[in-house]
Amino acid sequence: MSQKVFIFDTTLRDGEQVPGCKLNTKEKLEIAVRLEELGVDILEAGFPVSSPGDFESVNQIAKTLKNTVVCGLTRAVQNDIEVAAAALKPAKRFRIHTGIGTSDLHIKHKFNSTREEIIERAIKAVTIARNFTDDVEFYAEDAGRTDNEYLARVIEAVVKAGATTLNIPDTTGYCLPQQYQEKMNYLYNNVPNIDKAILSCHCHNDLGLATANSIAGVIGGARQIECTINGLGERAGNTALEEVVMILNQHKDLGFYTSINPKLLNAVSREVSEVMRMMVQPNKAIVGSNAFSHSSGIHQDGFLKEAQTYEIMNPAEVGAEDSKIVLTARSGRSALAHRLHKLGHQFTRNDIDELYPKFLEIADKKKEVLEADLQAMAEEHKK
Length: 383
Ligand code: KIV
Ligand code: ZN
Fold this sequence. Notes:
The protein is an alpha/beta fold. The protein is 44% helix and 14% strand. An 8-stranded parallel β-barrel has the order 2-3-4-5-6-7-8-9, surrounded by 9 helices. Bound molecules: 3-methyl-2-oxobutanoic acid (KIV) and zinc ion (ZN).
């Protein structure tokens, strides 16, 4: 039987940390409602102690959402946790996400501390958070570069203190998929009380590996993925929600499922892109404007004979517009005939052979041959 992978969306927290993407309460609320419709299990609404505006946004989201668990981020600091709890209080279900850096680099340079002291601070933070809710997630910041044996000790201690989800962030996007999978697997097999909690993937995309690492983490034993719409996030971004959801959806052989409605992926992507004023690159998987466009002759010919030759999913499955046959100087006769046919022109094979050199002439001059060019060509040919 397939196992569920929980989707933890952090578009409104880690995603919103992108310069220029800051949202006001109304915008955050609008997106939160859409994310709930999309089916995210947990929504990280913000970092309440960071500003009065963020407190207000988290509070409004907590008052509004009906099914999704609303989460707030904190440092391992008592006041952060108390403020987050106050902001989240009206929620039907809420989670406090607290944690601290665990790599030697963070321990030395950020905290001027020791491994033992960090464990004590982690235990204290989780214990305080448990006074407000029994849904406490702990993050071991820079876990990607944290020694596995030490990380296992931290995790064991915070589970004992009451953490129910364990976030293992590859904060700097450094890990290779195999390393991240081994890290999860190590924790899964070496933390004695791991059965009392869920391991979570939180991957950054500095080397373009965030999606691959998240999937590797799930294969290694994690059952939650932290991600953002369109992969938004600081620097090179976070794991893209739409990518991990569709990978698990397409690879049923892996034996996992999520509660996301894939048909809403493109609409939510567009909405987030507009509200955050962050364009989606055309070649972005699942939600880019070229994700279902075919422009080379060989691909177009195959696609027109049988779509599955060049498409692993139907655009309707992810709420995208129909596949497009784009006409360029690399397109062939079948694509030209197809597009003319769609415009209502029934040309014979001979007609297409005659039209094709003219088409190439135009295509060589332009990046793309447009409908108006085709109409003009067709009218000219009929004279
Ligand atoms: O990348 C990271 O380590 C984080 C934590 C604060 C969860 O975003
Ligand atoms: Zn992060």
